[in-house]
Design a protein that fits this description.
- It is built from 8 helices and 20 strands.
- With 380 residues, the protein is α+β, with helices and mostly antiparallel strands.
- The protein folds into 2 domains: 281 residues, 3-Layer(aba) Sandwich (Aminopeptidase), CATH 3.40.630; 76 residues, RNA polymerase II/Efflux pump adaptor protein, barrel-sandwich hybrid domain (OB fold (Dihydrolipoamide Acetyltransferase, E2P)), CATH 2.40.50.
- It has a 9-stranded mixed beta sheet with strand order 1-2-4-3-7-11-9-10-12, with helices on both faces. Strands 8, 13, 15, 18 and 20 form a 5-stranded antiparallel beta sheet that branches. Strands 17-16-14-19 form a 4-stranded antiparallel beta sheet, with no helix packed on it.
- Strand 3, helix 1 and strand 4 form a beta-alpha-beta unit.
- The radius of gyration is 21 Å and the shape is globular.
- The mean pLDDT is 96.
């Protein structure tokens, strides 16, 4: 069947405007595996919008060939609220300007309410448990308050993703190489995703602590398994954040290659028919997010980087200098900024004028850092 297009309206913040989220559906409604993909929940992260357009073409071709074995829902833009935010020709799409905060933080933990409803109802039949948990999680989402646009928007996205087998949340960083965030419980079963994408940083955590969308969809399965250890509860939702390089890395060449990599990943996991071939050799090993150094600016000033993206740096190495433009003596205008670990320089700041305490780089190391606490890792 051809793809189906759904338009889900949001309550309006103004009598003059009404926004909606668009979904493109492929495959039979009850087919498994079910995949949910969206782009630019941070609406100023543009690479995913172009990747979604290339995915649409690939999915259309697969649907026409009868090759969609599972169910795919694609939101080509996840965030109509953020896309519509303009301030003096500048597009600030990371935070909701009505005061709702970061679009990809503080998503609700569904576990407590789901656990209360599931108490005494789960057993050793894994398939039955999965079906019941999905139904319960969906019912929890349906009960969210949704009279305000931001709340309704969160409910709309969660409703589409909460019962999926695979959730792909397409982001980008500032200046960055390709990297992927996964829950450790899904490793190495889904190791082919970063391999296909050519990830230069594959970062594992048990709970990054930010209340991000992908973890809000996947963590209830792990937490319910802890809450009901006697029941057979698998990690039935693989949800991941894919960082499609940096904000300026927007081109058809990159987007088409990324879309084809995601397509092959979905073939390998039974969603789309066809032989994707073996996964490419990984460009990096998976490392713990606690070993990723988030370098902070010691003061306000202009960043002059001394290390390039992809460069391997050593602990104590100067990776940048912070220049005080008001300093009268140029010899005293520069403050060195050091790496706290040995590793690969994965991300840098795109805008080079920074405030004190700003996160200016991520360095992927192997040794856990004392200042990086599990459950409080979303610092950039």
């Amino acid at each position: 069947m051809p793809r189906q297009i759904r338009r889900v309206g949001l309550p309006s913040n103004s009598p003059a405007a009404r926004r909606a989220v668009i979904f493109r559906d492929y495959g039979a409604p009850e087919a498994r595996p079910k995949v949910y993909i969206h782009a630019a929940i941070h609406a100023d992260e543009i690479p995913g919008l172009l990747v979604a357009q290339h995915l649409t073409r690939l999915f259309d071709e697969a649907e026409a060939a009868g090759a969609i074995d599972g169910r795919i829902t694609l939101a080509p833009y996840a965030n109509p609220i953020g896309l519509d935010q303009w301030v003096n020709s500048y597009h600030p799409g990371r935070y909701e300007l009505m005061g709702g905060g970061n679009f990809n933080r503080n998503w609700r933990d569904l576990t407590p309410e789901a656990a209360e409803r599931l108490d005494g109802k789960l057993g050793r039949d894994e398939a039955a448990n999965v079906a019941l948990i999905r139904e319960t999680l969906l019912s929890v989402v349906e009960g969210w308050p949704a009279s305000i646009e931001m709340d309704a928007w969160r409910q709309v996205l969660a409703r589409e993703a909460i019962d999926a087998d695979i959730v792909l949340d397409l982001h980008c960083d500032l200046e960055s190489l390709m990297h992927v965030y996964l829950l450790a419980a899904h490793w190495p079963r889904f190791a082919d995703l970063p391999s296909e994408l050519g990830s230069r940083g594959t970062l594992l955590s048990d709970d990054s602590g930010g209340g991000c969308f992908d973890e809000a969809m996947a963590l209830p399965w792990l937490r319910l398994a802890q809450r009901f250890p006697e029941a057979a509860i698998p990690p039935a939702c693989f949800a991941t954040t894919v960082e499609l390089r940096g904000q300026a890395d927007v081109s058809d060449d990159l987007a088409e290659a990324d879309a084809k990599a995601l397509f092959r990943f979905l073939q390998r996991h039974g969603v789309i028919a066809g032989d994707p071939g073996p996964a490419p050799e990984a460009l990096c090993e998976a490392t713990r997010l606690e070993a990723c150094d988030v370098v902070k600016s010691p003061a306000a000033g202009v960043l002059a980087y001394k290390a390039a993206l992809g460069e391997r740096v050593g602990k104590g190495q100067v990776i940048a200098e912070l220049v005080d433009p008001a300093a009268e003596d140029p010899a005293k205008a520069r403050v060195p900024v050091f790496s706290n670990t040995d590793g690969l320089l994965l991300t840098r700041k795109l805008h080079k004028y920074v405030a004190p305490g700003a996160s200016i780089a991520k360095i992927v190391g192997k040794e856990r850092l004392e200042n990086r606490r599990t459950g409080a890792l979303m610092e950039m």
